[in-house]
Structures are given as structure tokens and as C-alpha cells.
């Protein structure tokens, strides 16, 4: 018998036992869908996490300034001034833009109502470096100095509108004992790993004003925009040497976009393998189901096997017959599983408001493994069928 004849025969046999075939097919379908959905979900989650770098770029370096307890015993504690930080570009020619910021947690009130938010003291470069777009008004400028002006994030803006039932732009918000005029509204901002605050829930004020508001408004963080292909190792050394001149007790912690992308890529690979293994367990269970169904089928069709062997069928023909049936179940189940897995991944993106991307490898891997499972678990029943004694098979009921 040729392959086409085996396929036709396999379809007829599977169609004659619809319930049994459907149960075997369901196991492969669920297993394949699990593999595709889990691996695709992991890839989509990683892609969503990396979206921040697509908008901000990979030439950013975040620097956090911490107090070194060991050096603090040897040197008097000193904080970096704004002038010293803004002159940091003298330490390395690859530093293009410097955006320092401070963080305060003073009470915020609007129209007599307390609102929860973070206060960020920023320079005019900050909005451009971290990609804050202005929906209304303007951002903090270089001419604000110690002025009582502020720009509010998107979520705070919505909260303030609900309180006053009018546009907060041009109105005043109270921070501590001071009243700030709202001069700008920020658009919705995708949170990223470079700023230790959510801009959507923040009030941005001039950095010099923040220093006047509180003695705790020290510059512990700044973000640098770098030249393309900058040597990060040398750059970190130059920055550390520069800071040590003015603040010997400080310890610097660096985070670069390239390092974060590399780290996230490695985590993504581990996550993909882990999720694939979990989905593979479901597919393995489906394969065992196929083998059980095929073994039951052999028991029920012993007389048919005996007749085929008695009239001249070769043992390899019997083996191919049952193996093709197992592979057909895997092909149909794998195809449906791939479609359902992609659909599940799409539903995940809708629920979490992610961007949907159809990745190439999850469906290919899911389908290939399902076929391999069908061949692997279908071979033993097919081999057992081909080893039956024709006389014993004909005598069976």
C-alpha cells in the first residue's frame, strides 16, 4: 500500500470511531495550545517590557547616588550640587545631555482635597530625555528657576478634574504651604526602569524650587543621554572619578539601557524554556492518550488485522496503517491547537492592553512537537499490531 492509500484508510478508520478519535485529538489539541499560548505569552510580555526602550532609545544611562557607609566614616558627608552635576559632561565627551531630578513626598491638595502623588524637582532637559509629551500648556523650562510653577501627570490631571469639574490648567495646587500654578499637563506616560517614579501620578516642579521647599531635596538620581556606541565601562569609571572629587562618601549605581535589554533577553529565554516545558507536559499527556486510544483500537480490530495478514498484507503495511492514524490525529490536533493557542495569546493582549505580535517560532515549535509526539507514541501500538499472529488474531472475538 502506498502513502495515499494509508491516509485514506486512516481517515476511514478514524471516522468510524468518532468519539474515540475525538478524545485522542483533544489531548493533542490542549497540549499544543498550551505550548503555543504559554510561549507566545512569554514573548509578548517581554516585548511589552522592551517597548520603553523603543521610545526612549538605547543610549540612556541612569545613575543613582547612594551613601557609602564605610566611606562615610572616613569623610564628612557631602551631597552633589546641581552645578556639579550639570558640569558632569566635562568628565566624558560621550555625555550629551544631563537630566537630574529630586523626589519629595510633601502633602498635595487641590481645592481643599488631598491627592496622592509624588513631587519631582526637574530641569528643562528632563521631559525630553525621558520622553514626556505635553498635552496642554508647557513643560518646566530653564527660565522657571525658583518660580512656583508645575506640570502634572495624566492621572493626577484626571483626579483634579473630578474634584473641581473644570480644567486644572492655570489653576493652583497646594504643595505643603506653597501654591503652585499648573502650567502644563503631561500625556499618558509609559512607565520605565530609568525613573523611580510614575510620571502619570507626579507633580513636576523646577528643581531649584524643590530645594527651597525641603532640605531633603537632594539630587540622588540623574539620567544621562549618551553618544552612540559609547564605552560604558570607561564612562562609568570617568563618572565615578568625577563624583569622588566632590562627594567621596557617595556610591554610584549604574543602569544602562543596553545592559537592561541584555538582562531581559536572558530572562526571556529562561521564561520561554520554562513555559514551553510546562506546556510540553500537557502535550506529553496528550501523547500518552493517543497511545492508549491506539492500543484500545488494536484490541478492537484484532480480527481485521488477522484478515489483512491472512490475505497477504505485510507486517510493515499493518505498522504503517496504525502509525499513519496516530500521525493524522497529531496533525489535526496540532493544527487546531496552534490556532487556539494564537487565539488565547491574542485574548491575553486584549485583556492587558498589550501590542499583539504573531511570533514565528511558538506555532512552529508547538506544531512540530505535536507531530513528533504522535510519531513517538504511535509507533509502539503500530509495532504491537504488526507483531500479531494471524491465526490468534482470527480466532479472537
Largest sheet properties? 12 strands, mixed
**SS-based class:** alpha+beta
Helix proportion of residues, in percent? 55-70%
Shape: elongated
Structure description:
This protein is α+β, with helices and mostly antiparallel strands and 397 residues long. It folds into two domains: 3-53 and 263-395, no CATH class; 79-246, no CATH class. Helix content is 56%, strand content 17%. The protein has 13 helices and twelve strands. It has helices at residues 3-16, 18-56, 69-74, 82-86, 126-129, 154-164, 207-213, 232-246, 257-300, 302-310, 315-352, 361-386, 390-395; strands at 60-67, 95-104, 108-110, 113-115, 118-122, 134-137, 149-152, 172-175, 178-186, 202-206, 221-226, 250-256. Strands 1, 2, 3, 4, 5, 6, 7, 8, 9, 10, 11 and 12 form a twelve-stranded mixed beta sheet that branches.
From the structure above, extract its key features.
56% helix, alpha+beta, 2 domains, twelve-stranded mixed beta sheet, 12 strands, 397 residues, 13 helices
